[in-house]
Amino acid sequence: MTAWHSKVSKWLLVIFFNIRLFFFGGIMKANGVLLNYEVHRLNSTTTLVAWAFTLQCALAYILSMSYFITFNEAPVGGYLLRYFNFRQLASVGGFLAGLGYICDGIFVTSVWHIFVFHSLPGIGFGLISLPSYLYLQVHFEDRFPAVMSLSTSFLYIGVALLPLLISFLTDQYGHSDGLLIFGALMWNCILCGVTLKPTPEGTQFLSSLAIRGEVISNSSFHFWDRYLFFFSSPIRHPKYAVCLTLGVASVYVYSSWAIFLVSFGESIGFSSVLSIYLSTFGGIGGIFGSWAVFMLFYYDKMNPFNGCFVPLVVNGVSLLTSVCTTTFYFTAFLMFISGFSQGFLYATLCGFIPVLLCKYHLQQGVAIAFTLQGVSYQLGGLISGESSLAHKF
Fold first, then answer.
1. What gap in Å lies between CA 174 and CA 105, rounded to an integer?
2. Do 393 and 260 form a contact (C-beta atoms < 8 A)?
3. What is the rounded CA–CA span in Å between residue 377 and residue 125?
4. Which residues contact 58 (CB under 8 A, 6 or more apart)?
5. Is there a contact between 167 and 33 (Cβ–Cβ < 8 Å)?
6. Which residue has the higher pLDDT, 377 or 292?
7. Are 74 and 65 spatial neighbours (Cβ–Cβ below 8 Å)?
8. What predicted TM-score, i.e. pTM, was given to this entire model?
9. Are 245 and 369 contacting, i.e. CB atoms less than 8 angstroms apart?
10. 229: helix, coil or strand?
């Protein structure tokens, strides 16, 4: 392969990786647009419907633990990877991501159908997420933190635009046909799998078990290394553990508000259109937050703890303040600040993971990060659902 073709294929991977982030980042907010409609249509509760919606994001992350950690540490992942490569599995994942919404548009007559069909995008995004992240890290190496932080902005472009898109599609074509079109658009994620080009010669994704024979003598094994090696990454890399904890807390805060932001806006007197725009302001803030991280990485001025802790505090303060106002423009400004801090923190975490982990713990560490974020999505959906019932959102 010529140098020119190698460079083109590398940037094609970036383009379709960003498309995957665009859809994955925006579907949580897009589901918030559908929430009240689904609750009334299915005669269900906000807690159940919100839980069903958060399931797709949770599965996308939780699947990483059972599927990707290593051959020896994850029997399911080892079985699949004996017969299929990353490109094939990620391409199938892109197909499942769109299929879930198409099935939602055709077959859903009960909230339990949402649980089933919205698990398909979760499985699909789970099959795409870690391979595309690892391949991007391999092909850009030292430039990965800057490339990843810039790519993260597409996640928040999705947050800004997908609620408007799904609202337009369902208003223009009806609920069922609108979801069919939305699912078909999500099939663009298939290309993220197709563009997973072979890694450079000699590159391999190392197992965290390989460290036993190459780096650490048996006498220096911790209890975690011997018996709970699933969690050896945070034990061996405490800076990673601290940043991961802050990142997981941020995802919990985000998911607690993402589904119910439109309902919250309507509950304090905003129209449904203005309430949807709250997500747009948050998404725009996330874009600027990601760009800010890109500039800090580019000029080598980024600190992992300040990049995670300060935005988490700012995010919490902005969201707590938002419940005390009924002015649209001030609420929108607070959503912008919340989105900025969320985008800043998430871009920092994604960019720093390869820096904070050794090559032996990289794959496992990314999988653990995705898994714990999935747990946060689930808890956020449940707790925000119960909160909405208590406060009549």
1. 10
2. yes
3. 14
4. 122, 374, 375, 377, 378, 381
5. yes
6. 292
7. yes
8. 0.77
9. no
10. helix
